[in-house]
Specification:
By secondary structure, the protein is mainly α. It is built from 8 helices and 2 strands; from the N terminus they run αααββααααα. The N and C termini lie far apart (49 Å).
């Protein structure tokens, strides 16, 4: 790391040395970061832009439409025991996904302790939470399709509702499905002792970064799409 305590002459050459020293500090900081972790952060940053565009477009469409927007509390209600319970399925889905963040965090913890059995078990538990979430989302899609919701039409008002719903929740569901495959693959590798031989479980943390991102995105979808 460059020592900035040493005085550098205020000459053109000295200014150039100062400029190089300032920029090389970032290089030194990233030199100690695992390349996989750095690439995952770059991927998640790009994915953040995509989800931000989707949610911004949704808010723009909803604010500008002249037709009434369907009430999410009624659209996503379930009839249980003869009573309409609003957003009950969405609440359970959110609880499942938030719980999966806890098991993933524990998996990373045990990974750094090199406890491969508990690490793999917790990763598989996280994947199971993901499968549960996607299954409930498939039920939600099926219910709305049977009620007449299409990307170009819905029976409760603004036709844009269907396209926004299928686009945003479908793209997020795809991320969860990919995450389930990713988690399962890494858990199998942990069980086989692949990372034990390398003495490095950092890939478990990298997997956790992806999963926590998926969970965080759902919080925004839940807030903007289902509660607004």
């Amino acid at each position: 790391m460059t020592d900035h305590s040493v005085a550098i002459p205020a000459t053109p050459e000295g200014k150039l040395r100062t400029f190089i020293a300032d920029w090389s500090g970032d290089q030194e900081a990233f030199r100690r970061v695992h390349w996989g972790k750095a690439m995952m952060w770059i991927f998640l940053l790009s994915d953040t832009f995509i989800f931000s565009c989707f949610l911004t477009s949704y808010m723009t469409v909803r604010s500008s439409t002249t037709m009434p927007w369907p009430n999410p509390s009624k659209v996503f209600a379930l009839n249980i025991g003869g009573q309409e319970i609003p957003l009950i399925l969405i609440a359970i889905m959110t609880f499942v996904l938030i719980s999966s963040s806890g098991t993933m965090a524990l998996a990373v913890n045990y990974g750094y302790r090199r406890d491969r059995w508990r690490t793999a078990g917790l990763m598989l538990a996280t994947a199971l939470f993901g499968v549960t979430f996607v299954s409930m989302q498939a039920f939600e899609w099926t219910k709305l399709i049977l009620e007449g919701v299409r990307p170009w039409h819905n029976p409760w008002g603004a036709p844009q509702f269907g396209s926004c719903f299928f686009m945003i929740t479908g793209f997020h569901g795809l991320h969860v499905s990919i995450g389930v495959i990713y988690l399962t693959t890494m858990a199998i590798k942990v069980l086989k002792g692949d990372f034990e031989a390398k003495g490095n479980y950092e890939v478990v943390e990298i997997t956790g970064l992806y999963w926590h991102f998926v969970d965080l995105v759902w919080v925004f979808i839940f807030a903007f799409f289902y509660l607004w």
